[in-house]
Amino acid sequence: MKYTEDHEWLRVEGDVVVVGITAHASEQLGDVVFVELPDTPKGVSTGDEVVVIESVKAASDIRAPLDGEIVEVNQDVADNPGLVNEDPTGKAWFFKMKLADKSALDGLMDEAAYNALIG
Amino acid sequence: MADLKRTVLYDLHLELGGKMVPFAGYEMPVQYPMGVMKEHLHTRAAAGLFDVSHMGQILLTAKSGRVEDAALALEKLVPVDILGLQQGRQRYALFTNEDGGILDDLMVANRGDHLFLVVNAACKHEDFAHLKAHLSDSCDIGMVTDRALVALQGPKAEAALARLVPDVVDMKFMDVAIRQWDTAELWISRSGYTGEDGFEISVPNKFAEAFARKLLSMEEVAPIGLGARDSLRLEAGMCLHGHDIDTTTSPVEGNLNWAIQKARRAGGVREGGFPGAARILSELAKGPARRRVGLRPEGRALMREGTEVFAGPEGGAPIGRITSGGFGPSIEAPMAMAYLPADLAECATVYGEVRGKRLPAVIAPMPFQPTSYKR
Q1: N or C end of chain B: smaller count of CB under 10 Å?
Q2: Is residue B177 part of a domain?
Q3: pLDDT of A52 over the 60 cut
Q4: What is the C-alpha to C-alpha distance for residues B119 and B105, in angstroms, rounded to an integer?
């Protein structure tokens, strides 16, 4: 798994990467009650706001972690937003994307670096 | 968090894992490890214990010693029938200003020879000064500073409290009573801010932690933070002062006509005689231009405070604004309150603008979640 400073995780599955948010982020958000996913396919640049996620406390955005194209979204998480709290790194993935440049993954944090970030 | 005050239960909140946030000048727990959603549902299913010690507790005693004189004095500041409030009973009231706006909302209890007031934390010093400025000639006014205030709410609140004070089972909704627990004198009311049956209990500071621990040791009782307090009261259709009602909204606009009894209305035995009476009595007669209503967004997206509301899906100027909004864990849907033109019918569809998109919401009756008071 690779991680971003925005507390997203990326897992490589064949020629796509699966994207979600970390357990740390889901704890900080509190109970998630709404998830809005983009239409697919959707070309994105790093930092584009692609998913809206609302908890009982506040709304926040999930940004595209790298350049590429979103090819699939997880309707289950929109139908059952509580999955983000129950299984943030498993069932509660948000989208799958094809990266414009796979080597860009090397610029992201590994687990040790992410754990150091969140202390 | 500099300059913030702490309630006497602060250390207990930390021990329970409370996440502390600034609220009305105090450091208060917004949630515990259970989380807002589960705390909310626990309160509706069992019993929740809330620390509301930041709220103001005020004693109002007439210099004559007669509670009727204290009631008549207080009626100069509220559009409410206080004289008609029986001994051992409590009633919702509003401090109005000369423009007919709402300075604060409060509870008033008749305790036989004096009145006991519970006011909002954010307004308590202004309320106290307001009472002093207007009623000092006829009344002694005292802020209670040696007592904490806790709320025990939910269908199992009665069973839990009755283990410590057996005869609370005889109290009905809005009854007040003074009871002993050990050597502590408890001031108990059967009321709350969740829509559930329950109690608010004023307890001397030095007994507050032991009392809270005793309740929390019971299986059905869990500590509940401000987050769930807000979603519980919103499901119950109750106003939060400073948001859903304030100095710019009248009680009639706020849909609080029920709080103004016949005695204070046009033709009543003590008609008017409170600040802003001209506007409030006129709005009661003619109807207000805008009114606080409930909204049920049709989708799952939340419509939070500040969301602008439009009549149609495109074009036009905003017709109102959401004053409270969030997700209702018991109704499993978003909910909101807004001020909208009073001629809009219940069930009419309006549109809240969320992240640049207009989303439909239906004007809906409140409470969103049925209340379960013990009448």
Answers
A1: C
A2: yes
A3: yes
A4: 7
pLDDT of residue B132: 98
Same domain, B188 and B300: no
Mean pLDDT value across residues A33-47: 96
Do B296 and B221 lie in one domain? The reply is no
CA-to-CA distance for B114 and B125, rounded, in angstroms?
20
* Interface probe, candidates A26, A27, A31, A79, chain B, greatest B C-beta count within 10 A: A31
B300 with A81: Cβ contact below 8 A: yes
Q: Residue B38 — φ and ψ, nearest 5°?
A: -70, -35
pLDDT for position A119: 86
Say if the Cβ atoms of A56 and B300 lie within 8 Å: no
Find the closest chain A residue to B30 by CA distance: A57
What the block records as the tokens of B326 is: 């969030």
Domain-embedded: residue B107: no
Give the integer Cα–Cα distance in Å for B126 and B120. 10
Tell me which chain B residue has its CA closest to the CA of residue A82: B37
| Counted domains in chain B | 2
Report the residue of B234, B302, B324 to disrupt the A interface, i.e. the one with the largest count of A CBs within 10 Å. B302
If asked whether residues B33 and B151 sit together in one domain, one would say yes
Stretch 45-64 of chain A: residues touching chain B, C-beta under 8 Å: 52, 54, 56-57, 59
Antiparallel, parallel or unpaired: β B221-223 and B47-51: parallel
> How far apart are the C-alpha atoms of B160 and B165, rounded to whole Å?
9
Q: Same domain, yes or no, for B293 and B375?
A: yes
- Structural domain for B44, as ranges: 10-55+146-235
Of B217, B235, B253, at which residue does a domain stop?
B235
CA nearest neighbour of B45 among B56, B53, B37: B37
Q: What is the pLDDT of residue B1?
A: 55
Residue of B nearest to A32 (CA): B37
End residue of a domain, out of B212, B235, B258: B235
ipTM of the shown complex: 0.87
- CB contact A69 to B (< 8 Å): no
Number of Cβ pairs closer than 8 Å across A and B? 39
CB crowding B281-311: b at 16 or more within 10 Å, else e: bebbeeebebbbbbbbbeebbbbbbebbbbb
Whether residue B40 is found in the same domain as residue B168: yes
What does the pLDDT read at residue B275?
A: 98
Q: Which of A56, A75, A76 to mutate to test the interface with B (most CBs of B within 10 A)?
A: A56
Residue A29: closest C-alpha in chain B: B35
- pLDDT-flagged residues of chain B (< 50): none
- Chain B residues in contact with A59 by the CB 8 A cut-off are 302, 304, 355
* 3 state SS of B199: strand
- Same domain for B51 and B150? yes
Average pLDDT over residues A70-74: 98
Where do the domains of chain A lie, and which CATH numbers do they carry? 2-101 (2.40.50.100)
- pLDDT value of residue A57: 86
The CATH number given to whatever domain includes residue B188 is 3.30.1360.120
